[in-house]
Known about the structure:
By secondary structure, this protein is α/β, with parallel strands linked by helices. The protein contains 10 helices and 13 strands. The strands form 2 sheets. It has a 9-stranded mixed β-sheet with strand order 5-4-1-8-9-10-11-12-13, sandwiched between helices. Strands 3-2-6-7 form a 4-stranded mixed β-sheet. A hairpin with a 2-residue loop joins β6 and β7.
Amino acid sequence: MTNLINKVRSIQSSKKQPSILVIGDLMIDHYIWGNATRLSPEAPVPIVNVKNESTTLGGAGNVVQNLVALGANVTVAGVVGDDVTGSQLIEILESEGVKTNTIIKDSTRPTTIKTRVLAGRHQLVRVDREVTDPISKGLEDELADKLTAIIDSADIVIFSDYNKGLFAPKLTQRLIKIANDYQKKVIIDPKGLNYEKYNGAYLIKPNRKELAEAAKTESIKSIDDLPEAAKTIFSQTKTAYLIVTLSEEGMAILTEQSSKLLPVKATEVFDVTGAGDTVIATIAYFIALGFSVEEACELANHAAAIVIRHVGSATTTIDEIIKDMEV
């Protein structure tokens, strides 16, 4: 552990910033905060007296914010609607120093907004405004051309898939081929059951439930069940690594030949929201800096331990990770 801490400090003192390209489903998380002390006379539902509203990046945007907090140079690619919300999303990204020239506006769909209504800490309802159909062939070509023009400057590529229409199988394979042609590692946070579309990726990071569903097994009841479930994914994707997040049990590093468990580092768990985004961002960040997958996962385990001590999506910094490792 001491050697890893020293290695992180050495990179930190060099002020080296990896350039990371994030391709993903972009959305806005909209929160309405208020009090609910009575029921509506019109229906048995609470009446919320609104006290405050807030807007943050959601989906792939949370991965981006984690990378920015760690100190990466980030370019983000994806599709938003040609609307006020899409412009707001781009403005938020640019205010954090993120390059957005590979974000495409689609006039046929709205920018995805997830509105959560909360009374105190209790979420009463979530309202989603979105279209999840695959993007058009014309937009696929435009996105592929934009990425081909800039991908050589990236140290690593993240796909942040939230199943919102961007990662249709043919386009996903096209984008992986572009990255591989330029010898860029692709790290994927997956969604859905079709992992064949991720064929050619370097690393895929499902959680336990996602792996069980994609491998078409009833459940993964213990750590011992992971290698058997993983065989299906290795066969479909030819990926070098599967990193499986296991909530309170930590994470597992799987290859076709081996498996290793990294126990959870958290001492307190308040909210696991966004922890997966922190993990994928931290892994990519440190691999881009030349760390091994095992070292990057160890650091990501500490990063996840930090963010789940907070309520809501959170980010962490290199200093906080070092401090957590020293405890």
